[in-house]
Structure prediction request, 965 residues.
Amino acid sequence: MTEESILTDEFLRQLINVGEADILVGVPTYNNAATVGQVVQTIRAGLLKCFPRERAVIVNADGGSTDGTQDLVRGVSVNDQRYVSDLPALRTLHCISAKYEGGPAAGAALRSILAAAELLRASACAVIAGDSTNLESEWIERLLRPVYRDAIDLVMPLYRRHKFDGLLVRTLIYPMTRALYGKRIKEPYAAEFAFSGRLGSHFLGEEVWQNDAGREGSEICLTVAAMTGEFRLAQTYLGSKSHVDSRSADLVTALRQTVGALFWSLEANLETWSSSHDSHAVPLLNAGPELTVEPLRVNRKRLHRMFCSGVTELDPVLRTTLSAGTLAELQRIAGLAEDDFRYSDELWIRTVYEFAFSYHKSVISRDHILQALAPLYRGKTYTFLIENRDASGEEVDRNVERLCMAFERLKPLLVELWK
Amino acid sequence: MGLPEDPLWYKDAIIYQVHVRAFCDTNGDGIGDFRGLTQRLDYLQDLGINALWLMPFFPSPLRDDGYDIADYKSVHPGYGDLDDFKTFLKVAHERGIRVIVEMVLNHTSDQHPWFQESRSSRENPRRDWYVWSDTDAKYRGTRIIFVDSELSNWAWDPISKSYYWHRFFSHQPDLNYDNPGVRDEMWNVMKFWLEIGVDGFRLDAVPYLVEREGTSCENLPETHAVIRELRRRLDGSFPGRMLLAEANQWPANLRPYFGDGDEFHMAFHFPLMPRMFMALKLEDRKPLTEILYQTPEIPEPCQWCLFLRNHDELTLEMVTDLERDYMYEAYAQDKTTRLNLGIRRRLAPLLDNDRRRIELMNGMLMSLPGTPILYYGDEIGMGDNVHLGDRNGVRTPMQWDGGWNAGFSPADPERLYLPLILSPVYGYQAVNVASQKRFGHSLLSWMKRLIRIRKSTSVFGRGSIEFLHPDNHRILAYVRTLDKEAILAVNNLSSSAQAVELDLRRFKGNILIEMSSRNIFPRAGDSPYLLTLGPYQFYWFRLRRI
Prediction:
């Protein structure tokens, strides 16, 4: 009876009124009054347009908002007392909102949404960020239709981004998940995604929720669960990604939510990742332009400076985390002039793999390990910016692909470390 | 027993719709007749209904089941004669059953002498009794109703070499109500039957009486003027008689047919019916309450007529495209069951012969505001035969017993006007009155109890309605109130058990008495009133402050 401890009585009471649902859209929020009204209205429009006959529900899992977020969600319900004249609706569309316990946490929000989906026996579910600022109703169809109609278990998005946006995903999360689990999902950590009730229930029953990785990086854990289980995966192109920049404004927080969860997944899935040798494409259901290349001002000097000072200041930590050879190479490039600085793919991959192993061994506090990765990531970012300064979208794609291949090629290093 | 003296009798009525042809044949010609219907009045009295609506029984070529009338002042010889009708009427009245007859105002058969005269020459005095034109380009804004069989509302008459207007089949030319002679003559027809003693008329296809260029030729002010004139004449000479409108229209367009209480006494609520089915399939009260919210108030003496099924297809004209698509998928996946914009099925097959759903639908029919109409045979769960053409599949002989011709006729089975239902599930040997009379738990016995409860109070027929809005959308709950009497109806539209919390604070202090068992439920108070209902279960509670 896991659900009893996840859902508050108030949440449960609202779910009883919803009954059974075919489709559930979860919206995690925390003080998102500025955006959530538009978000849930767009979700509603998407549901009524694409799934007019299905029993759908919008479930807002709120982390304790005090700005009226919950009222905005509840206000878009469609029922026999509230008509939406321009959106014909066959049936009631519940928009429910409940606080989960323990304050704002992405994992707790997702867990509440998963528990709600299981109780309502929803066969297709999506999660849409409450702080999204450019959600389109078509996204609802693109995410949910493959799950609902074609028995896909996980649909991850592809966004249209600037070539220098989402670099943590492109230089670490994507290449490493791909190398580890053999599935080429370009956005394994997304704010919008869809999954089957089957996958949701499977993931809800995993032990991930008991540790930091689950609490902070549950989204990526869900992706990994889908990659490592008998689940059908797909990607779909959505469009430009735009959120109120709050989720990962702090790099260390972002690292905890993504890299920490990914490192943690190595322990739980040793047999799977250590035995997979190459990667396979995941079907792309809708294609679209992914990278934009308009000029963008980036303070590269600061990145370089933070890398160099980080290597120096974190020397005691890096000595326990990295092999002598890797550390020496990092110290060498930290001593180079900015114009000569280059953080090679191979060195970056060795760094990441050795960090992952240290995380596993908990040579020091795992959180300190993740914090120590931050300046090194900035160094890699610097190199990426330099290398792709004049690159077209296709060239950036090729460079990312080259990095991915290198992650796969060097994966035996990680396996060897683990042994 | 006789008839109670009450000019608003139709508000408390429970109407039973029957075709003479389909009920009971006494002379062995395979066609039901008035003598047979008279013999079966005991059954109807026992069922508890107190009004009969007879489908057209006038002389007719029967190309549209009698809605193509060739003589308004007589009885089709297959059904008997005028004396048989008079005897039937007298016996019905003695049993407290009023009789409403069908009156097809809009059109006649093309075999009617009026039309024969009208087409004979352009100079004939009755030429203008129908709508003629040298071109088929007039009234282009008018929709075609029988889309499956008619391409135009105009038909070419080779005799008079011009086009005539018809809203239904081309063998049913529309009368021209701009002609005062037509209006006078139709009143004379009605007066003829009123003088014999009929209690009311169901006026067929009333929105289409008058045509005007540049309009949809429906619901025109001139049509309302015709109806007001008929009503004035009716009230002047025959007070206490009733007019019932067949106007398959949206609520806003239906409302004018009540006028200021000076047009129809009653009108069918067409949009409600498909939404009852929709709500049941969706397990969601929204479609139902939505249409009732859109239903305007009507003058005090007026009343809605509610029905689940009738002799026509389950019409989907008054639903949106989205709703129609849903209804087809939900109730008519077998495309042979689709006809025009509707579904030609009886109640039981529509509901998969699910007794719980049949009961729930009848429960709502009897408790929502209006006068309920039962279609013959539905009280025993009769089936249909979609392989018979047009709407004949829902017009097969009444199934009285499991014997020869289901007790309907002594004729050779081959002579029956339509074949009996023979399927293993709905065939007359499985579904018939005699077998259901023997068991207290049969659908027939249940219907009798339901009707008895409905008739035990005037609240259902005359009371106001107030919807409750429990958060559980699968529960439809409303309070019917008349003076100091209040009844709470709670319906579970879902196939699964449901819990619901009702806000009954307004009735704080009342105890709830379940009307079928008279069991007492806890008193209403300040807290939400928790009820649990089984799949498709419904309750009627009398609210009493004791």
